[in-house]
User: Fold these one by one.
Assistant:
Number 1:
Amino acid sequence: MTQGSKQGGGESIRWDPQDQPMVPDHPLLPYIEGDGIGPDIWAVTQAVLDAAIDQAYQGKRAIVWKEVLVGKKAQKAYGKEHALPQETLDTILGNGIAIKGPLTTPVGGGFRSLNVALRQVLDLYACVRPVRYISGVPAPVTHPERVDVVIFRENTEDVYSGVEWPAGSSEAKEIIELVNRRVKEAQGRPIALESAVGIKPMSRHNTQRLVSMAIEYAIAHRKESVTLVHKGNIMKYTEGAFRDWGYQVAAASFPDATLTETELYEHFDGVRPPDRVVIKDRIADAMFQQLLLRPEEYDILATPNLNGDYLSDAAAAQVGGLGMAPGANIGKRCALFEATHGTAPKYAGLDKVNPGSLILSGVEMLRFMGWHEPADLIRSAMEKTIGQKTVTYDLARQMEGAKKVSCSGFGKHIIQNLSAP
Ligand code: NAP
């Protein structure tokens, strides 16, 4: 295996020509501790990851952690205007894989949201959220175990482009006057001059790289289908184009590995050839009910930004909530794994909250690195711990007969269960 350059005892990760990570046995991995509950859940996550790696590889492999600063901690170290220091970005880009706790957007940093800024600056164009039920977690539906989907949400445009103007502003009026001239020519209904205005840009390039990543994942993980989720019945040239560009890139770049739902029924009587991923599409509102009614028919969802935002939280709720939902932001040769919830400031420093979301993000990171043995160990140790009803307050309040433990206590039980038969 190719080894990267030595950095403080760890080695940086290299990438092969197919942009897959080549991970040395002692990779240097940057982490962002995060704000609010970040330090509580990070300490537990790091301990669980290290213990599982040690148990799986007996010292042959280990992560060399390197803290990088963002947000309030960065402002303290570098000054008020440096909430997202270049040194942090360089370290993450140079190592390619990193993990983060939740972040508050600090006043004076010049960013609308640090989380969005990180995704944009590092060009992490896909927000990837695997949604799978962990046995024993209280869930609001009768059969949460039927859900096993990975959502690939476009991470750079649509509402994330952040182009909007407030109602009554001169900019909004200027845009509306321009638009209304075009609307008049087309004999449409003009927009009220006092409206607020937002622009929803969606491009072929950004759609197709997102859909390609989803299809590559489906092929690599032997999944049956990729579903393009859109609202193209109403927004024909943005959401409708997302659907069309998705089908186009599947046909052009993966002709022997994909087929459409129509082709499946016309040429294969509805029986999927095992080496083909079925590309289908669903209108966003219908997708919500499909996920509740027939979740087993969906493996991978590829979505524009806003649809994916709603869907990934709704899907996470279906299997027991955001406290346990892992996430990642992935680009070309760079991946940042993260807890999906926020900083929950009222619980900061209380050693109380559920570290499950960040631990499971760490599990996804290990899988991305090809370190499946410790990833499997953690998942089953977490299932054992929850099966023993030893859980943090959020799960305890929904479980009868639960033993409520602290954030660090939950971590300790998981570590004990790593070696349980
Ligand atoms: P939040 O931090 O996610 O907290 C909302 C509620 O969710 C908490 O009060 C708690 O519910 C529950 N919760 C969150 N994390 C939990 C955990 N690990 N274990 C158990 N319960 C948990 O949402 P918010 O209060 O709307 O946002 C606070 C800050 O976080 C904001 O500054 C926001 O911008 C930021 N944020 C950051 C990210 C990110 O970094 N990716 C994402 C979202 C929000 P109960 O009170 O019912 O126990």
Number 2:
Amino acid sequence: MTTKENVLDYLEKRKGQPVSGGFMARELGVSRNAVWKAINSLRKEGHEISGGSGIGYTLSEESDLLSEAGIGGHLRKRTDLLVFESIDSTNNEAKRLAIGSPKTPLLIVSGEQTQGRGRLGRTFYSPADTGLYMSFLLKPAIKMSEASFLTIAASVAVTKAIENVTGITCGIKWVNDIYVGDKKVCGILTEAVAGIESGNLDYVIVGIGVNCHPASFPPEAGSNPGYIKEGTPRNLLAAEIANEFLPLVESMDKESILDYYRDHCIVIGKSIRIFKQGAGEQAENGASATAIGIDDSGRLIVKYPDGSTSHLSSGEISVREART
Ligand code: BTN
């Protein structure tokens, strides 16, 4: 780590507390001048550091610039991590990196995406400063048919992480949207990198986009976008998502993942419309049905007005009315 990274790491671990420049210099084994230069450079990058020599330096509790030190300091297990201020798409970056056979799991985080992608070929609105955009590059020992469980595990992990960090209870709309009340605050896009010849699943990329702070959402941001709450600490949330998600990937304990998912699924018991749609296709007028459960493969069980049922593994649904 560079001196600047070390200084940020040091301050992150003591966020909100004044730290003497001289003491920090001794602890980090660098000169006071090097600490001073690092502080100046961090301030220029936008980190909110108050104080000065004599009174100590304090990284503001409200400072919310994403950084490796800021996220890494909260990770329960050391994880390879890359943090960008802005990037085209963290899922794209994961795909590019996959070519070089990197160590996995690898977490890629950005404070902005210029070409954020959503499901079904849609754009995912990813403005600077208000959201958290992250992708896990994984090499899980699972079959292609099980990959959808990673999306479910990610929904569970994000829901738990938001609750751990903010106390807010979220709902999961099948299959991969997280809601606070009736507003979507997070979407998940899982993509596979498969060997063309072997047909094996080489890597899986789980991309997660969370709207954290208030933003003015343009029409392309979807039908009902929302945000978690003002002041949501993005570094902590990113780490907490990893802390919840990576153990689930390791254990792949489908039963407990599904239990949590079913408990938090907001569509069960509701009247819905089903839109079967491929990338780039126009949605057809949806068939009406009632969502009656989630099966053991994570598929949505629906009942049609004629009494017949089916198990849906993909597609879009819209909820028509509140549960009675
Ligand atoms: C959706 O709601 O349709 C899924 C949105 C997924 C967005 C995330 S943000 C991080 C990662 N990079 C992307 O380009 N997309 C995913």
